Amino acid sequence: MILLVIWGSTYFLVNKERMVIERQAELSVSEMTDTYEARVVRALREIDTALKLVRFTANSSDHANVLGVLHEQRLLPPALLFTISIVDEQGMIVETTDSGRLGQRLKPPSQAVLGDDYLAVWETDAYQAKQLSFARPLMSESKSEAGAGAGAGWVVIAIDANYFVSSYEVGSLGQQGMLALVGTDGSVLVRRTGEATHSGELMDITAWESSTLDAVSAPFLTHWQGVERYTLVRQLYDFPLSIVVGLSAQEQLAAAQQLARKYWQRAAWTSGLMLIILAMLARLSWQLQRAQQRVMEERVSHAQQVEHLAFHDTLTDLPNRAFLSHLLTQAVKLGTRHDESFALLFLDLDRFKLINDTLGHDAGDHLLQEAARRLTASVRESDFVARLGGDEFVIVLSRVSRRDQIEPIAKKILSAVREPFMLAGQECHVSVSIGVSLYPIDGLDEQTLMKSADMAMYQAKQLGKNNVQFYTDELSAEVDVRLTLESGLHRALAGQEFRLFFRSKHDIEVGSTLGMEALLRWQHPTLGLLEPAQFMTLAEESGLAMPIGQWVLENACRQNMLWQHEGFPALTMAVNISARQFYDNGFVESVNDALTATGMDPTLLELELAESMLLQDVNRTASIFAEIKKLGVRIVVDDFGTGYSSLSDLNVLPVDALKVSSCLVKRLSGTRHDQQLSSSVIELGQLLSLQVFAKGVASHEQARFIHSPSSHHFHGFYSYRPLSVEESCLEKK
Fold this sequence. Notes:
Strand content: 15-25%
Distance between the termini: 134 Å
Low-confidence stretches: 110-116, 140-150, 211-216, 709-719
Number of helices: 24
């Protein structure tokens, strides 16, 4: 009986250890599949995001070098792993991050998997190394437009196939273990077994999935290529691919078999020492149970940490962009199902860059962490806060449908952020600009809601920051016009869309013409004739202010010379100069180049500068004026009387003439007090021995007043409107 107990117990332990190891193998497959799936999906989403970004930039921009522009903005994935190419409809590579492949013809796909998003995946060989290529057509993402854009070419990202199967060491995978990325038709795009990689085979994954009731989470035994494996097949969410993870049953059970032999040997050797053996087996079993429990607890903890890091921001511990996308998708689905509204708040910290640059990145990180805590404390438990990146945050307010429900929460957020921050031992003040969009009024999907809230946030920035703006259709129209102007500015110069109009300056006493003033206009193809106030701000932001200003200067001088060659008298030509153009290091040289290229007499050129420019840096302005005077060019101060420049400034600067501001000229038709004020400004200029001209004359009464002894010259809208070149020639005749 005692021997029966010994051998029965040994048999029981051997089978128990085998079951434990089998269970461990199944858990290992499941955990390895979860981790592998997260890594592959993250890589595919990064690839798909890059494809969409390149496609969007290529479709909406006139840049000749799309990839170069995105690379300079650091928006492309690392070139060490990814090769990004733009392929025309004949398969020729016209632009790529790998200069060695430029001009090559892309090998047509041996396997193409097209989903609703028109994402193509196929195998390629590049430089004797197996690669996977992911592509999207250069066309609109709308299905209705797919046919129209299908011939425009492709955006292709190529990556070494080993990238998708290199995440595990052989020690954890085993020599017969398997990682595979498989297409929907069962073709193996890449497979790793041990340290070797393969591709091009076929797997009957459909039959494997149908062989178990829970193919998503329960591993099952398969026989493939003569090896029995614990296998798990997982179809990737949102992608036409599946992953296959398998661990060799022989390798996983080797420890159990070895342990079984050891138990049987011990049972045979210790049959005579029954009590001791029973005690040793009991002790060994208890220790093994505790060790397995610790291993399982560590694995569960590690899996939870990996999942948390994948969906949360490491700095603020808030949901990151990926998790926000998931939450918004769920919110839209719930809102559609239950007919509920919610609000999306797009937040951007004001003055964050200044603090980050002056106090350092550590202070900036501390500011973001503290701002995240304040934002979380300012909303309800049913709402959630996420960080997009940088100083941008998103808040989703559930079950709100009216502004009066949102405004108290937004004001609470503004107040919380305005509280001082202690950064690097200093008290700093930061505000936040908030843009709001409502579901379903302002959008029915994540992208539309984010875009609407983003536009509203930029409107809050433009209105002085530290405020809340709600998205409106008018705001969308303004953004569309702005985008139209921004895209058109880059082709306006090359397309000769800029035009010069001229306004004459007259001597009121004798009625003769003293000179002309060049006025810039943009003949936009769709928006019509635009004045500088409508587009010069965008030109300065786009870095086009300097070339536009140089074009105006050269063409004004060239037109003056053309008039002289046609027999008209030599008249002065006035050109308005912006602050950015004036303070550019090459401004004086550009003036000299324009005079040299056109052959115009420097004394006929007048540079008009706003009075407010004189106050920015008087010493630097005086230095530039001195260089201009060496060329013989005249200097005129525009809008005199509005910039509060001092007499000492005017005495230092070599100014030739003053143009009295139009707001002072308008007062000539006003009360006696207004007339005295305008007259005093004119007399001030005359006392400085400068020529004084009145700007914006619009009535007979103003003209008669200027005709008085207090002023001798004027030019303006009084019977003289801006004229084109052709109209100016007719007027001169």
